[in-house]
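Hey, quick one: can you model this chain's 3D structure?
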Amino acid sequence: MADDLRKPLRFTTQKSLAHRLVLSTLTGRAVHISQIRSSSPINPGLAPHEISFLRLLEAVTNGSHIEISYTGSVLLYRPGLITGSAPGSGASGGVIKHELPATCTRGVSYFLVPLCLLAPFSKAPVNVLFTGPGVITSATPSGDMSVDSVRTAILPLYTQFGISNNIELRILRRSNPGPRGQGGAGEVQLVFGHQVRLPKTVHLLSPGRVKRIRGVAYCTGVSASNNARMIEAARGVLNPMSGDTYIFSDVSSAPFIPSADKSSPNTKQKIGVGFGLSLVAESSTGSLYSADIASPPSGGQTPEEIGQYCAYQLLESISLGGVVSLAAAPTVITLMAMGSEDVGRLQMGRDVLGSEDVIGLARDLRNFGASGWGVRDADSNSDGGFIVSVVGRGVGNVGRKIA
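Sure thing. Here's the predicted structure for all 403 residues.
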């Protein structure tokens, strides 16, 4: 049995790589991932954002062992102890400064959501500053949500598990995707100072009715009138549905980065120019549904189109039903599976439970030793969907390091 635990779990392809590394770190099981873009003739192996995520894991843990093959298509990861921003473990002045490369095409939420899953099980508080030319704070064409949605739709869910103190997500400098969707030169700081022994067992069975809608319209390096046009278009769709709708407006200048032109190395260029909208609907029972859309790097979409598309995307997220949205389901289910050894229950919409991401998460949790889920139809007096029963694995906030 001990030999089986020392053997790494084997996976293929880069799909759900970040979440598999998070599960590996939480459970202490090593992972061996192969065939990472092995069929790509131009860019085989790990992408820049995946390499950067491995560097982040190395910074917030102590004793992690990472091996990457010559082509980058094979990864072996042996997790260490989650130390957070403890002195002497890579933090300077209690802050870990993590720089993202200019070739990064994923939003900073790609790093924030997994980091928030690790933070409650850390030895010390987590304080990470994301900086560099690759930080994109807005939504991205690859499907990453904006930092605003992480702050208003993901972090409040931790309150359900008894994790609510000293948690803050600061947007120090906004940015949109740059040319070809690469880079943005934003700056974001995550402070997660609430560590627990075990997350509480939750029973989330009532979605409730939507009572308020909040949002943030942001523009970077463009006219502030774009925000007003997005807000007006979004309210035109949402006002007939909800009487309590308020969308904030945030205007900021575009960041400057050194120019790549070697003939004039002292010049700087603007990057991360664009606009976008983040919407969050809250129900009477505290359920949260989010939507995110930003202007594409190539342009071609008016602010009115962005506002309408985001409003319709929010309505679609609400129509899927359940207590959690599709974007928040992996976070909630992972915390339930890592909690105390008790049965937690969660109501999920049919399309959310049957999505590729949730089904893949269920298989990954099973591979890492978690119990299978119990699924039954919801009560007839509810809005339909399914009740998912998840048994916690009892992963506590202790050092589970495999030598």
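One thing worth noting: The two ends are 16 Å apart (CA to CA).
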